[in-house]
Design a protein that fits this description.
The complex is a heterodimer of chains A (440) and B (498).
Chain A: H1 2-14, E1 29-32, E2 38-43, E3 49-56, H2 71-78, H3 88-98, E4 101-106, E5 111-118, H4 122-135, H5 140-158, H6 161-173, H7 187-192, H8 197-207, E6 213-219, H9 223-234, E7 256-261, E8 269-275, H10 284-297, H11 302-310, E9 314-321, E10 329-336, H12 342-358, H13 363-379, H14 384-389, H15 392-398, H16 402-413, H17 416-426, E11 432-438
Parallel strand pairs in A: 2-6, 7-11
Antiparallel strand pairs in A: 1-2, 3-5, 3-6, 4-5, 8-10, 8-11, 9-10
Chain B: E1 13-19, E2 24-30, E3 36-43, H1 57-66, H2 75-82, E4 88-93, E5 98-105, H3 109-121, H4 127-148, H5 150-162, H6 176-181, H7 184-194, E6 200-206, H8 211-220, E7 243-249, E8 254-263, H9 272-283, H10 291-298, E9 306-309, E10 331-341, H11 345-362, H12 366-379, H13 387-399, H14 406-415, H15 419-429, E11 435-441, H16 444-452, H17 467-476, E12 488-492
Parallel strand pairs in B: 2-6, 7-11, 7-12
Antiparallel strand pairs in B: 1-2, 3-5, 3-6, 4-5, 8-10, 8-11, 9-10
The chains are: A alpha+beta (440), B alpha+beta (498).
């Protein structure tokens, strides 16, 4: 316990330069079993508690078959429907007995099932979790009922203009790649789900395989014991992952735009999105392009001060330059107070991009951002579940957590010129999609 | 790294005391290995202290403290100074308490604390900040609450409805008409009157230097001494007679429903843990162990979730575990039915009320009681996983006036319960006859007529259902609803918090 804490303390004292010595402040132990199943065990000095994250490297990105979007998320629901060994009421009863905090989430590139519980329950949890990943069993009736709950979730989302913004932004920006649909899927597909029982089984059989799932266990654990238990419970899981046949997105040739009328009195929502790059933690160009979101449009940017604080024409301004497995969108979003100002706001966004393409950014601000990103990550690690919860995305995108160190190492080397080059290369008109959601 | 377990706090210093000449009340939680220092400044002031005709003043004042310039720094510069620290502070406004919460790594403690302190003690009260935050709040009600988030809308209307006629009736963010009239001068006066030493509890957790406590005491001694908003009179909602309904009429494809009534059962009462257990079985928040969830979502696939509460749970849409520093007395019993298809709204209401009635009449079974007892004996470990949340609970112990710390004693109190005790307590506090309901839905007149006429509400499914579910549906669809015409109000959307 002591050693880990000392490492953490040293890291903070030494600051940025020690990043290459290891960004993630805890020691991770890894094992890959014969069937390709990877386990990452991270002991933490938090007595008594274990966080158990099964990261399936399948998300809405993997839904490549026409008419079948939304199934990754749907499985987030179906995985709680039990097996022959542990029917759902038995599974639920055991979770209740353990007082486990259990949930799941789905994104573009992953589906994650997570539980936090007292350490004495580790083996029981592994028995249950390994069982449902290998032996999930549900009948058509249960499948159909759950599809009703999923459609309810869709309708709930639809009553939010940001959801409408995202749904239209991805649909407009992409032609072939599966990032065209949001994680919950196209409405028509979600509505038609009750008729797709057979497809659901095929989806499970192709993607819920040991080579495509990473088990992350953090907390009060002994890694050797974890590996031994994993061998016992996951050892017989058969290989069989079939990678999805995702179409590559053809190069965009011209800017795109769409205006959507929202049925309600809302402030106009504007998104200006640019197609980004493939995840590559060693590429300066890639890392610089992601950093540009905060630099150009974060709450310490010049445009934020101008439009939000001083002129007060914009209520909210921000950038969503996320990490994805395939090239996705880097989106700038603004909630504009008056519809007549939208053109002006677009011009200001454009002016900002041009400025960063023409001029070198302030070197101190770049260093401040590096410090911000470092502390932001480390300050998120405030409980066992928070440590585990900080890792699924990087695992889904890269297959492990090593990429985290590589990413932050590259980040430390970024110069103002790297930032300028990324701005020139990736924020061009033929990568752009502009969406406006306006109210009544 | 934080210790996630609540009962293992040996080695931490725990105290509620007053320090220095200034007598600032404070709660501290020293954790040697915790590099993140968390602050909570809790002021006994909130929308309940909004003057008549100025609902929204407490919230706006709090926003101006947390998100605006100080005498030392323009807001733009505060953001720039906080940025490399990746630290920040924000405010949580609840009906009775305003809580400023901040976190910093101990390496950055000095820089962070100075900024946070100045925000609370030296606000600049600039016209430009006032205009920005006032407009954002008004837009938040007119566009976001009314048109972007039906569930938050339903909750806000429901709470104002349940506490009608009391100081808790005031909407937290305010009313549009009132907000439009509020001036910067009102804000300054509210600040002077309410942000006093007498109203403050300061909280600190993590591996902070001991000198920080006296520094805080010295700094906050600059606040006016008093007065205190200590309650002179109880908040006493009028007795609810029958079923009272507010229908917020909105063009929407799904209906959210909130049901409940005030209950004067607080954490220090001997019945509290018994009702906590019963409620956990009936509707544990965002947990599939919730019985309501099983009946409405699991068996029937009608929606995304169905939960119940015996303590107010603001921002439940985003949080898995109960919030802290949102004390209120009386508390409320609430059932939250997440959006169902409009056609099923009456069926969902009946299903929920029927379950409450059954719980009151039949009580819990031995099996359910024992299972829930075991569940809670471990589940409560998640309530305060971070040091900041533990600090929040410690402060709550003070707010609730507890002699024994709540979390540390939770397991023991749950273990000491008996089935008989729980079933007696259920009968004492829960019922399904006198309550308030809020719907956010379309075709309000149709719903009103159906409620008045006790119209049966058969349900049809797109997918086959087991025979026992269909049999039970026949009972649910005619579960009696006796609503008097005068007890139903239809609220047009644009009238909400007008």
């Amino acid at each position: 316990m002591k050693r880990v804490i000392m490492l953490l303390a040293l890291f903070f004292v030494a600051g940025a330069l020690t990043l290459s010595a290891g960004f993630f402040p805890f020691k991770a132990h890894e094992k890959i079993m014969e069937n390709g199943f990877k386990i990452i065990a991270v002991p933490l000095p938090n007595p008594g508690i274990v966080a158990y994250y099964s990261v399936v490297r399948t998300g809405s990105r993997d839904e490549f078959e026409t008419g079948h979007t939304g199934f990754a998320h749907f499985f987030e629901h179906m995985m709680f429907k039990g097996t022959k060994n542990f029917p759902s009421d038995v599974y639920d009863g055991m979770m209740t007995l353990m007082g486990a905090d259990t949930n799941a989430f789905t994104g573009d590139d992953l589906t994650t099932y997570h539980l936090t519980f007292a350490k004495d329950d580790l083996e029981k949890v592994m028995e249950l979790e390994s069982d449902r990943f290998q032996n999930l069993d549900y009948d058509e009736e249960v499948f159909k009922t759950e599809s009703g709950a999923v459609y309810g979730e869709y309708l709930k989302s639809k009553a939010n203009p940001f959801f409408i913004l995202f749904e239209n932004m991805y649909d407009t920006a992409f032609d072939k790649h599966t990032y065209k649909h949001t994680t919950i899927g196209f409405e028509a597909d979600v509505k038609a789900m009750p008729t797709m029982y057979e497809f659901s089984k095929s989806f499970f059989n192709r993607y819920y395989r040991p080579e495509n799932v990473v088990l992350l266990i953090c907390g009060d654990i002994d890694p050797e014991n974890v590996f031994k238990l994993a061998e016992k419970y996951y050892g017989k899981w058969q290989k069989g992952y079939v990678p999805p046949a995702i179409s590559e997105e053809p190069g965009q040739t011209a800017p795109r735009a769409k205006i959507i009328q929202y049925p309600g009195k809302i402030l106009p929502l504007l998104a200006v999105a640019y197609k980004g790059l493939q995840f590559d933690p060693q590429s300066k160009e890639y890392v610089a392009s992601v950093m540009l979101g905060d630099i150009m449009f974060g709450d310490t940017s010049e445009i934020y001060a101008k439009l939000v604080l001083n002129e007060q024409k914009v209520q909210m301004l921000g950038a969503n330059f996320g990490l994805n497995r395939d090239p996705n969108l880097n989106a700038i979003m603004a909630m504009v107070k008056k519809i007549e100002d939208v053109e002006y706001i677009k011009a200001e966004i454009d002016r900002t991009l041009k400025k960063y393409q023409a001029e070198l950014m302030d070197a101190k601000r770049l260093e401040d951002l590096k410090s911000n990103l470092k502390y932001s990550f480390l300050m998120r690690l405030s409980s066992t579940a928070d440590v585990a919860g900080s890792l699924p995305e990087i695992i889904a995108i890269s297959g492990g957590i090593d990429a985290l160190d590589r990413y932050y190492t590259t980040l430390q080397t970024i110069t103002p010129e790297d930032i300028r080059q990324a701005a020139i290369k990736y924020f061009t008109d033929h990568r752009k999609t502009e969406i406006l959601v306006r109210g009544e | 790294m934080k210790k996630a377990i609540i009962f293992l706090i040996a080695g931490t210093l725990l105290g509620v005391s007053a320090f220095g000449a200034a007598k600032i009340k404070h709660v501290s939680l020293k954790i040697e290995n915790e590099p993140i220092v968390s602050f909570r400044f809790v002021f006994h002031a909130g929308p309940m202290n909004d003057p008549d005709g100025k609902n929204g003043l407490a919230h706006l004042t709090a926003q101006i403290l947390a998100n605006a310039s100080t005498k030392q720094n323009k807001y733009e510069d505060i953001l720039k100074k906080l940025f490399p620290l990746a630290s920040g502070y924000f405010v949580q406004v609840d009906r009775e308490y305003i809580t400023f919460i901040g976190e910093s790594h101990k390496d950055n403690l000095d820089s962070f604390y100075s900024l946070f302190r100045d925000a609370l003690l030296n606000p600049a009260f600039l016209e430009e900040d006032f205009n920005r935050l006032k407009t954002a709040t008004i837009n938040g009600i007119k566009t976001n609450l009314r048109y972007s988030n039906d569930e938050e809308l339903g909750k806000a209307v429901f709470k104002a409805f349940v506490y009608r006629g009391t100081p808790y009736e005031k909407n937290i963010a305010g009313r549009v008409g009132d907000l439009e009239k509020i001036t910067l001068d009102d804000v300054k006066k509210f600040y002077q009157k309410n942000f006093t030493q007498a109203n403050l509890i300061a909280g600190l957790s993590g591996n902070f230097p001991d000198a920080l406590i006296s520094r805080i005491a010295d700094d906050f001694a600059k606040l006016p001494q008093g007065p205190c908003n200590c309650r002179q009179e109880a908040v006493k909602p009028a007795k609810i007679e029958g079923i009272q309904v507010t229908i917020v009429e909105k063009a929407t494809e799904s209906t959210g429903i909130h049901i409940g009534f005030p209950i004067d059962l607080m954490r220090d009462h001997e019945d509290f843990h018994a009702l906590f257990l019963a409620n956990s079985w009936l509707g544990e928040h965002r947990n599939s162990s919730s019985h309501l969830y099983q009946v409405i979502r699991e068996d029937r696939g009608m929606n995304y979730g169905d939960y119940s509460y015996i303590e107010d749970f603001p921002r439940g849409g985003g949080a898995q575990f109960p919030p802290t520093n949102v004390y209120k007395k009386p508390q409320l019993f609430e059932i939250w039915i997440r959006p169902v298809e409009n056609n099923n709204r009456l069926f969902a209401l009946r299903a929920a009320l029927r379950e409450v009635k059954a719980l009151v009449e039949k009580g819990m079974t031995k099996k359910d009681f024992e299972l829930t007892q075991k569940f809670l004996s471990k589940y409560y470990l998640h309530f305060a996983a971070t040091a900041s949340e533990r600090l929040g609970y410690k402060i709550d112990d003070t707010l609730y006036g507890l002699k024994e710390p709540y979390l540390e004693n939770f397991k023991e109190k749950i273990a000491a319960l008996t089935l008989d005790k729980v079933n007696q307590v259920i009968k004492k506090y829960l019922q399904a006859d006198n309550l308030k309901i809020v719907f956010v839905t379309n075709e309000a007149d149709k719903l009103k007529n159906e409620l008045i006429n006790n119209t049966p509400s058969p349900i049809t499914y797109r997918t086959p259902k087991p025979a026992e579910v269909l049999e039970e549906d026949k009972i649910i669809q005619v579960f009696p609803l006796a609503v008097k015409p005068g007890n139903i109000a239809i609220l047009p959307l644009d009238e909400v918090f007008k």
